């Protein structure tokens, strides 16, 4: 049984407050590693990616850290086993972000959204409130469906980059979450299994994702299969490392098909089907073959960042004590043109229904024929 959805069912979203609620981070002092350390040593060593030494000193002097419920402003206070530490990150104004989300498909198990470019999916970095997850939580708290009033809290089961628009799948039950996560994981794991032919892999996959992208330059081949592995490298402003094309990385596979070439503007409109789900895979793969996404501020030819040189350690800090925003581009920066256009999957709980979801294309990612059809 095939279910196809092409038009949004409805939209939802609440405007962002000027300031978020801030955050509270709790720690317990353990005998083995933390007992006997000073307060400043504990935070500046354990959370050095959050702020430089002087930034942590400012936070302590500002009364943002408590020990067993009491504010402590002495950086050299000695920690003892069993103490409870809490750091209060003060409320801040997050960068501008859209908030409206279109519902493309919804049933008792899952919801598919059309995410706008510029909206982050999950909390991270400067974006702790202005996320898809927060809008889903606000929607659930309003009891917009009978299931949600019973305590269901939809959560995204995969990610789209902040600058990427299009289909985002979210689970509304634990069973659906487990199944959908398995669908995505299975697709990625099959890429590393050389014993399977492409035909066998296609039959086994329970989810298929097709994107639209606009790239620099003119692709000569009509169809390209990219199998470049993706790994990480050290990069300023990205604590866990930047994902890049790497011979020692994990297997990844993208199928690229040219839809339209524009010689005058020196750009190509492509369709990309990804059979694995590595972070920033499409951006990395297309730049690896010499055609970075148009407007991508980060990835350059070869699937590497535009800036290779290692930034010297910057001990300056922002008003809240944290590091200043990196001078170099980071993965969350927007400006490129990438859209999750179509998704086909087996239903996560029944497996009997095949669902095809389509998110309408931004004008810049339409072919000339598609544009004329809408006139």
UniProtKB/TrEMBL annotation:
Organism superkingdom: Eukaryota
GO molecular function terms noted in the UniProt entry: pseudouridine synthase activity; RNA binding
Ranges where the Pseudouridine synthase RsuA/RluA-like domain occurs: 110-287
PROSITE patterns reported in the protein's UniProt record: PSI_RLU
InterPro entries reported in the protein's UniProt record: PsdUridine_synth_cat_dom_sf, PsdUridine_synth_RluA-like_CS, PsdUridine_synth_RsuA/RluA, RluA_PseudoU_synthase
Catalyzed reactions per annotation: a uridine in RNA = a pseudouridine in RNA
GO biological process, any: enzyme-directed rRNA pseudouridine synthesis
Gene3D superfamilies (alphabetical): Pseudouridine synthase
Pfam families with a match to the protein in the record: PseudoU_synth_2
Name of the protein this chain belongs to: Pseudouridine synthase RsuA/RluA-like domain-containing protein
Native species: Salix viminalis
